[in-house]
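Quarterly update, task 2.4: zinc ion-bound model.
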Amino acid sequence: MKFDNILEYQRIDADLVTIEDAIKNSSERVRVYNYKLKLDEATEMVKRLQAESADVVAQYERIAQKANELVAKITELEGIIGKADDLNEVEYYTKMLSGLIDELSQIERDVNKDMSKADNISFEYKKTWEQGQKATTAYKNARIEYEKLKMERSIEAKPLADELSKLTKVIEPRMLEIYKGLRANKKLPAFVEYQPEDKRCGRCFMDIPSDTQGKLKKAGDYAECPNCHRALYIPD
Ligand SMILES: [Zn+2]
């Protein structure tokens, strides 16, 4: 009969779709996705910490250079004070010296701040690195589990796929094309029996307009439902 092959194809393919959905909705796939997310987060965090640590190093170098300059100035001033014989002059340079020493203490505080920041970064880095390692292992294991599931399912699917490929050779090409288009749009079942007295799509239940009704008069007719686009057919 006209629709036997495509309906047989549809029946077998429904089992194949069930297998595909089982893979898609499997906890194995969810785990792979989640661990990948964690891994990506850890990788991002490592990058961010590396950038922060480069900033701290640059900041430290700037401070160290400033400290060197100050120490040189202080040494120079101490020399000048040692040689000065005027009391006013001594007082003037001593004031200047105490200003420089204050500045140096400020720098020391900045260095300490920088150091504690570096400690924090290094702590975070270590923690993130460990998390990353754990996520990598978990991700790899989840992938193995997922591949195993896919393998098992594909063994189940193989005979079905073989039957479908046999049927492909005997199905009217236009019908197969319609079926595949609907399958790709997740409109299954694609071929739906039509009862002319019902005047409705058997799947989306929309009333069928008269021009489509005109194409669905006798056994063997088939036409597209204007609403859900499934193929309505009258068995022969
Ligand atoms: Zn419909």
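Highlight for this quarter: The chain has two domains: 8-171, 177-233.
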